[in-house]
Amino acid sequence: MSEESKAYRLYDPTSKKIVVSRDVVFEENECWDLGRSNEEARIDILEWRDSNKEGSENDQSEEEFEEEVATEERREVSLSSSESAGENSSTSEESSPEGRNRRVPFWMEDYVSGVEFSEEVVEHNNLVLFASTTDPTTFEEAIQSSKWRAAIDLEIEAIEKNGTWELTDLPKGMKTIGVKWVFKTELNENGEVDKCKARLVAKGYAQQHGIDYTEVFAPVARWDTIRMIIALAARNSWSMYQLDVKSAFLHGELNEAVFVEQPQGYEKKGEEYKVYKLKKALYGLKQAPRAWYSRIEAYFIKEGFERCNCEHTLFIKRGDGGKILIVSLYVDDLIFTGNNESMFVKFKNSMKLEFDMTDLGKMKYFLGVEIFQNPEGIYISQRKYAKDILERFRMEKSTSVKNPIVPGVRLMKDEEGSKVNATMYKQLVGSLMYLTVTRPDLMYVVSLISRFMTSPTELHLQAAKRVLRYLKGTMDLGIFYQKKGNGELVAYTDSDYAGDVDDRKSTSGYVFLLSEGAVSWSSKK
Amino acid sequence: MAAASCACQGVWMRKVLEKLGHSQSKCTTVLCDNSSTIKLSKNPVMHGRSKHIDVRFHFLRDLTRDGVVELKHCVTQEQVADIMTKPLKLDVFLKLRELMGVCVVPRVN
Q1: Does B101 contact A229 at a Cβ distance shorter than 8 Å?
Q2: Are the C-beta atoms of A370 and A384 separated by less than 8 Å?
Q3: Are strands B69-73 and B28-32 parallel, antiparallel or unpaired?
Q4: Which domain holds residue A181?
């Protein structure tokens, strides 16, 4: 089996399943012979692998190395097995004829199955899994420990202080919306426990359109705009600052009449039948983001800001003598820049009076994007995010490649190819999609692989994995907006002529450059 | 077609930049490696092949006339947008990537 385990691997020829067990009774008949022959075949393969490995790369762990070697052969070997294991996760893969040493597939990593338990790598992963999920899921669980009780008290206090609700009788014909506690341990950048947070959320899914809410749309800033502001700041050597609004959604004022139940554990004595009428938004309400946006928009207008007509989250305040303050709003994160220090201070102070704010100082880390500012320009990258993606999809030890896609290759629908786990593929594409925020070089290939999300096959997964391997070698890349260089907007546009093999549609793309860096790009079929 | 959608984005970006106090005095240059597109945008002749071109395209022609955008030809080697539309050879890919300002962390001296 393996070096650690003393269990036996048993092969059931009727159900074609492998079972690992120490509870074995040896009988001197064909059952024993079958298990034995399987084991021998397996050892042969292992020896062959070891000798092969010596020559090439020694620093990689066996698991990862196998993935590289076996990606090609796995296609043939486990044509049927990958599907069956994906659907029925509690059983193991069918035994392949060669008795190949098995790698834990991605879709199995959330499960603890008997067979994989004995392998060392999985054991380690499981430990990590258990250690990170200590947050309580129910109120009853949380109330046991004092640190969570303190967090709950804090949240209730904040809500009461904010004037979020008032206790009333429920009017006839109105329905209440349930509330629920959500607990979360926040970690700081070193992975240590920062604070325990309890949040009271409303069960927004119980809301009905036209009764509890009407409009839910709330604008957020486009990345194009944020990059444009950064490019402009780089060109003018402005510093960029960042503010964060604490419990932003609690500030939003409601126009609709919404009634919620009293939170568990905090029912008012003798008035248990009463309900709370909300005056301000709670997390989880459908209209909470919109309520927050209208609140902060009203504030900006009051402060003499001008809202940009073509980008509603961009607010600009002009002072006399060419002074300017630019604020961009991304839900509860604010970034601002400008050419006048005194305007910054005034703005910050007035914001602090109005809302509960955290001043994060110079912009360093915004929505997963790292920002470095120096007098020559501003550099943005998503190095940490890229690293997280590689770890999540277990590609952190793969060999890197120089370009994200094989030159000249045309991906097409692959109806005959063996299907791969679509959920995993979608997660992969989604993670890569966010990475294109600072990586225009990935834009084309990510939009290409995203076209096959409905029925991804091995072929497409290979392409996606190549992107990850390219990412491995280029994790540190980002965009550098320089002070020098021309301040003019230059655009490049191109289209491939009917590049899609399946439906003869063209892909068109454009790139806008400003301050020696790309600010806006697109690749569209 | 690509040029037209690019021009739309260009118009939007010019508006935002104007608000940001960085208005573009000159017209925005749009570089395109399809010379017949450029010719058509400058010279609205009706042609058998251009009959089916969408209304969207005529918007681009208006923009060109008003001097908001200017279509210019650019050699294929410097066509940055290529990176958005096709799988490129390694050397071209690296070169275009650099042109977009994508690089490793610049060391502060």
Answers
A1: no
A2: yes
A3: parallel
A4: 139-367
Amino acid at A372: F
Taking only the tens of pLDDT, chain A with its 525 residues reads: 556 667 777 667 667 777 777 776 666 655 444 445 455 444 444 444 444 444 444 444 444 444 444 444 444 444 344 444 444 444 444 444 555 555 555 555 555 555 444 444 444 444 444 444 467 778 888 888 888 888 888 888 888 888 888 888 888 888 888 888 888 887 766 667 777 888 888 888 888 887 778 888 888 888 888 988 888 888 888 888 998 888 788 888 888 888 888 887 777 777 778 888 888 888 888 888 888 899 888 999 998 888 888 888 888 888 887 888 888 988 888 888 888 888 888 888 888 888 888 888 888 888 888 888 888 888 888 888 888 889 988 888 888 888 888 887 778 887 888 888 889 999 999 999 999 888 888 888 898 888 888 888 888 898 899 989 998 888 888 888 888 767 778 888 887 776 677 777 788 888 888 888 888 888 888
Sign of CA dihedral A32, A33, A37, A43: positive
Per the structure block, which two tokens stand in for B102? 């994508």
Which of A69, A91, A109 corresponds to the end of one domain? A69
Q: Is residue A207 domain-shared with residue A290, that is, in the same domain?
A: yes
- Domain assignment present for residue A281? The answer is yes
- Rounded to two decimals, the ipTM of the complex is 0.84
- Structural domain tally of chain A? 2
Which amino acid is it at B54?
D
Domain end, chosen from A69, A87, A104, is at: A69
Q: Give the long-range contacts of residues B56-60, CB within 8 A, separation 24 or more.
A: B56/B1, B56/B4, B56/B5, B57/B1, B57/B4, B59/B4, B59/B7, B59/B8, B60/B3, B60/B4, B60/B7
Other CB atoms within a 10 A radius of the CB of residue A274 amount to 17
Based on the domain organization, do A55 and A174 belong to the same domain?
no
Nearby residues of A252 by Cβ (< 8 Å), 6 or more positions away: A280, A281, A287, A288, A289, A290, A291, A292, A293, A294, A295
Does A519 contact B13 at a Cβ distance shorter than 8 Å? yes
Among chain A residues, the shortest Cα distance to B16 is held by A310
A306 interaction partners in chain B (CB closer than 8 Å): 19
- CB A494 to CB B24 under 8 A? no
How far is residue A209's CA from residue A207's CA, in Å, rounded to a whole number? 7
CB contact under 8 A, B6 and A478: no
To 10 degrees, the CA torsion angle through A228, A233, A239, A242?
Answer: -10
Indicate whether A36 belongs to any domain.
yes
Q: How far is B64 from chain A (nearest CA, A)?
A: 14
**Tokens standing for A264?**
């568990």
* Chain A residues touching residue B29 (CB < 8 angstroms): 488, 490-491
Q: Is position A48 within any domain? A: yes
The structure tokens 């240059």 sit at B29
Question: Considering the entire predicted model, what is its pTM?
Answer: 0.70
Question: Residue A442 falls within a domain, yes or no?
Answer: no
B7: closest CA of chain A, how far (Å): 9
Report whether A197 contacts A300 (CB < 8 A): no
